[in-house]
Amino acid sequence: MMHEKNMDEIKEKILAEIEKTEKSVQEYREITKPIAPENAIGRVSRMDAINNKSIAEAALRKAEEKLSKLKYVLRQIDQDDFGICAKCKKPIPLGRILLMPQSRHCVNCAS
């Protein structure tokens, strides 16, 4: 079981990451809105816009996935197995939890 002070630090980190990721999701949703064909942009510019939109859509999916994992981890933080690798069952170092709170695996099992 993790130390209470560490749990508070982890919870703060998760909440901050959720807030930051929610902002990213909102920004990506703005960027990925459909491009109206009546906009007076040239064919090459339209191709750039479509390409940029697909990159933003991929970033949006990644941000939404991270947000989902962060919310899941936040719900699990009070469980006895929090901070234990889902694969090898060894403790995940605090530094990794603070760096990537959404990760449920230690460095070895994640790679």
Brief overview:
This protein is mainly α and 111 residues long.
Largest sheet: none
What structural class results from the helix and strand content? mainly alpha
Task: Name the helicity range.
Answer: 55-70%
Gap between N and C termini, in Å? Answer: 25 Å
Shape: elongated
- Number of strand segments: 0
Structure report:
This protein has helices at residues 4-31, 43-76, 94-99, 107-110. By secondary structure, the protein is mostly helical. It has a domain at 4-79. Helix 1 (4-31) runs antiparallel to helix 2 (43-76). The longest helix is centred in the middle third of the chain and has 34 residues, at 43-76.
Element layout with pairings:
Elements: H1 4-31, H2 43-76, H3 94-99, H4 107-110
Which key terms come to mind for this protein?
single chain; about 110 residues; mainly alpha; 4 helices; elongated
